[in-house]
Design a protein that fits this description.
The chain has helices at about 20-35, 40-45, 90-105, 120-125; strands at about 5, 10-15, 55-60, 65-70, 75-80, 110-115, 130-135, 140-145. The chain is α+β, with helices and mostly antiparallel strands and about 150 residues long. It has one domain (about 5-105): Gcn5-related N-acetyltransferase (GNAT) (Aminopeptidase, 3-Layer(aba) Sandwich), CATH 3.40.630.
């Protein structure tokens, strides 16, 4: 099943399962995480994808700009925006769509593991940091949480 949400300038976020959105989400994640950030491929794609709700943001011309996923336990992850669209609100569109989906299914909160450089972005969306910094795929992260 696909769900559409419109953003500014005819941008839209599509949510759905891995069977429907996995090919496009994989391309974005490989580009951002594996190619740019040097995350090992074996650590990037995992068996949890099949259990998640995925979101892809498209521009007015139908080009995929970014992706993210919502796990059954309320974790948001694999947030990735392609370089040409960074700093243009794409991450906010994706994050809002995933939080809305969590709220609709009855989740009381969402949690994510933020790369340290992205903490301010998540804080602007109401997330608060907790715990110590930890390494994931060689990149420092911090747990962040938000009540819905």
């Amino acid at each position: 099943m696909l769900d559409f949400a419109l953003g500014a300038d005819d941008r839209r976020v599509v949510t759905g399962n891995w069977d429907t959105l996995g090919a496009e989400a994989s391309r974005i994640r490989l580009e951002v995480f594996v190619e740019e950030q040097q995350v090992p491929l074996a650590e990037e794609l995992d068996a949890r994808d099949a259990q998640c709700l995925h979101a892809i943001a498209y521009d007015a011309d139908g080009r995929a700009m970014g992706t993210g996923r919502l796990l059954p336990d309320g974790h948001i992850g694999r947030m990735a925006v392609r370089k040409p669209w960074r700093g243009q609100g794409v991450g906010s569109l994706l994050l809002t769509a995933l939080m809305d989906a969590a709220r609709r299914r009855g989740d009381a909160e969402v949690v994510l593991d933020a790369q340290l450089h992205a903490r301010a972005f998540y804080a602007r969306h109401g997330f608060t940091e907790e715990g110590e910094t930890f390494m994931d795929a060689g990149i420092p992260h911090r747990v962040m949480r938000r009540r819905l």
